[in-house]
What we know:
Helices cover 86% and strands 0% of the residues. It is mostly helical. The chain has one domain. α7 packs antiparallel against α9.
Amino acid sequence: MFELIKAGGWLMVPILACSVIASAIVIERFWTLRSSRVAPPTLIVQIWEWVKKNELDDTRIQAVHESSPLGRILASGLINRNHSREIMKESIQDIGRHVAHELERFVGTLGTIASISPLLGLLGTVLGMITVFTVITTSGVGNPGELAGGISQALITTAAGLSVAIPSMIFNRYFLAKVQSLVVNMEEEALKLVEVIHGEREQDAALSRGRQR
């Protein structure tokens, strides 16, 4: 392995750096974007229980806020639960945009690595071919060892660049789709919260009017 890196020349250093960074991002995003961590399935049920028992207070809202990205979105709506449905939705949408942006953190960097790695490999190819033509110009074609050095540099850097770029592009697309799916799920949960708060209150108001009659 070390011999291949050495044969590829100095451009193998940034290509390897891209490989290490991409690997770190993939591992971190797999851990961070777990559905159970981003949008716990029992969170809205727990809030509903608190609402029914009239136990929803600032302490529990803070706990919801700190529990998960979905919790941050729901907490912003709970803070405005005494306002109209429209204000509650606006606060949820505002925080939702920030949360979605945070979920996409580092995914753009992965896409950048997928774009520049082949270019680094191509640059290595060009430099390797320049080396080959320089040897031909100065020594002719009678020195196959020096010709092979330039050719190997060209091939190794190209292969290394593609080896980094292809999985980086695959994971970039995967994580973008994952984030989009999580955002849609959180939007659905937030709408459920609005219905829990305002739908229940409207039902209680209707029942109260019926008793007064």
